[in-house]
């Protein structure tokens, strides 16, 4: 028999809490007068934007609606705009089977959800829009560490979570969920990718060089003087991935991990032009900088 797990409170209650967290984060960064949180379905938005950022939202979109998702994003994007998409993906060889079958995650955690594959994303983009993929970074190898930190934080702060009305059934369910997903990332059955898509009139740089003084341990030495290029959209929006700085997250709510990497990069703001849009966890948040 299928059991339904209900969270305490209602949709508007949780949306209101998420909105307040966004406002507090904006105020802490001195940007509270530049951020507007909208509790809208992304398809209800109007206007056009220079930038769209979608962070692990497409997994909640049924595979039959992927074309609608990318068509809507294209409608909202200016002809010279960019879209950054972060998505948890499933291996291409498993996609066709997974999209037609329920598993533990789809039954108990994300009803109606569907992990896309990289190929499925590319084919949907081609069918539904004139966007093109200009950058892709697979950060899946870091995500197992992120899930392990989430598991530890979740259990460390369980008393606070229980005080909000969550019971032991929820505790056991999320312990299983976090460990289940950690194993899937370790085995590379699923991964996490950051993709930059460009509208037809975008003509920006496609690569970035590390600024002087920021050479990483894997950088190769060069006898020639190094040339510094303008940061690419991928560098500005995505250069830090899940798990690379897991200690930056605070609070027990698991959504912190997805949004922290955007706040962590000092080049994020410079990569966004006059008007931008950030899509996080099913919310589309217009802002101006």
Task: Provide a concise account of the structure shown.
With 289 residues, the chain is α/β, with parallel strands linked by helices.
Distance between the termini: 51 Å
Rg calculated over all Cα atoms: 19 Å
Look at the helices and sheets and give the structural class: alpha/beta
Q: Which residue ranges are poorly predicted, with pLDDT under 50 across at least 5 consecutive positions?
A: 1-9, 212-289
Question: What shape does the CA trace take?
Answer: globular
CATH class: Alpha Beta
The second-level CATH architecture is: 3-Layer(aba) Sandwich
Total number of strands: 6
Structurally, how many domains make up the residues? 1
* Strand arrangement in the largest pleated sheet: 3-4-2-1-5-6
Instruction: Bin the helical content.
Output: 25-40%
Can you describe this structure?
The chain is of the alpha/beta class and 289 residues long. It has one domain: Rossmann fold, CATH 3.40.50.150. The chain has a 6-stranded mixed β-sheet, with helices on both faces. Strand 5 and strand 6 form a beta hairpin. Helix 2 crosses helix 5 and helix 6 packs antiparallel against helix 8. The chain starts with 10 loop residues before the first helix and ends with a strand. The N terminus and C terminus are likely disordered.
